Amino acid sequence: MTDSFLKLTVLGSGTSTGVPVLGCHCAVCSSTEPRNNRTRCSALLEWSGHKVLIDTATDFRQQALREGIEQVDSVFYTHAHADHVHGIDDLRTFTLRTGKAIPVYAARDVLDRIQELFSYIFSEADVPGYRPRLQVNEVTGPFELFGQKVTPIPLMHGPGESLGYRIGNLAYVVDCSAIPESSWALLEGLDVLIIDALRFREHESHFSISSAIEIARQLRVPRTLLTHLTHDVDYARHSTGLPEGIEFAYDGQTITLPLSSR
Length: 262
Ligand SMILES: [Zn+2]
Ligand SMILES: [Zn+2]
Ligand SMILES: [Zn+2]
Prior knowledge:
Layout: E1 5-12, E2 42-47, E3 50-54, H1 60-67, E4 74-76, H2 82-85, H3 92-98, E5 102-106, H4 108-117, H5 119-122, E6 134-138, E7 143-145, E8 148-157, E9 160-167, E10 170-173, E11 192-196, H6 209-219, E12 223-227, H7 235-239, E13 246-248, E14 254-258
Parallel strand pairs: 3-4, 4-5, 5-6, 10-11, 11-12, 12-13
Antiparallel strand pairs: 1-2, 1-14, 2-3, 7-8, 8-9, 9-10
């Protein structure tokens, strides 16, 4: 029985530049440790035989090849920054094969921005085969998808906003620098948290590693994965310094957990 489980695959654990950073020869960028190789931040969720992407990162095509993704049933967007959206055109391969539109979910301003950035996808005039077919859904609160409740979690991302997503007792929370008061309750009782933890130093639009650890502690989450990492993080060297229950995410990492009945 696989349908009572939720599987998450870390498609990309890297920040907007990816790691290695182009032209950088630091120890992490030159490392042969595969967990220091980070594509742009994204995840795949699977339940009841359905595959749902969180964001279409710049590296989506390579991520899909690496993980053998041959089907995409929906996409949840966190926000419209380039690193989370720019793989959108590769959805075309999937919709061309099925002839069906993929339902995408995002906040209103994110949908507007995606439609502005990729107007050819939504233009009536273009030839349909050369663009992905997407069916847009505005997220205004919790919604049902493939028999599960999906809870969006409003987050602050520097001067902007983003949406985290919770399914069962797993929450995916990127990109963010603060959790609004009203969102804390949505993160209670988690078993797994995947959270933005850019680097050791503070950043105005992202949690640092220490602030992400502090949030995991406050939420009493048994297992937390730190993601959206820069080349400041050397997987093996810095993993030893993390508290119990906290780990760095890496590309290709998977987590399976039972689906709650919320
Ligand atoms: Zn990002
Ligand atoms: Zn580097
Ligand atoms: Zn961002």
